[in-house]
């Protein structure tokens, strides 16, 4: 019995790869997909335009008093006119207090010391220990 070959080929020869893929159908599918995508994008663009127009028609016009109030400064006292500069000044003052010596209350003899020095002193002397609680008496 003789072997049957795929259409247009001799028996015993391998089929070329091009016969296995329908390039024309694949190209039509790609073009159809691109066309559908373009139509959907166009439909969304039109829909958003219609929705934007409806929203602007339904919104009331802003009050002229509102636009006049936006340009005025708040009444005095304006407590913080330069917040960035105020924050820099506060941080510099805190850094100075944390890294320098100074009096807290000279009348009572209370002074502050830098944090690094306080850590050194604590490491040398250790932390105070609490007395142990009394042992429980068992009957």
Structure described in brief:
The protein is mostly helical.
Which key phrases capture this entry?
two-stranded antiparallel sheet, flat, mainly alpha, 139 residues
Report low-confidence residues grouped into runs of 5 or more.
none
Largest sheet: 2 strands, antiparallel
- Order of strands in the sheet with the most strands? 1-2
Structural class: mainly alpha
How far apart, in Å, are the first and last alpha carbons? 109 Å
Radius of gyration: 43 Å
Residue-averaged pLDDT: 84
**Overall spatial form:** flat
The total of beta strands comes to 2
Tell me roughly what share of residues is in helical segments. Answer: 40-55%
SSE order, one letter for each helix or strand: HHHEEH
Strand content: 5-15%
Total count of helical runs of at least 4 residues: 4
Can you characterise this structure?
It is a single chain. This protein is mainly α. Helices cover 51% and strands 5% of the residues. It has helices at residues 23-58, 64-71, 83-98, 115-125; strands spanning 102-105, 110-112. It has a two-stranded antiparallel ribbon with strand order 1-2. The N and C termini lie far apart (109 Å). The model has no long low-confidence stretch (mean pLDDT 84).
Secondary-structure blueprint:
Blueprint: H1 23-58, H2 64-71, H3 83-98, E1 102-105, E2 110-112, H4 115-125
Antiparallel strand pairs: 1-2
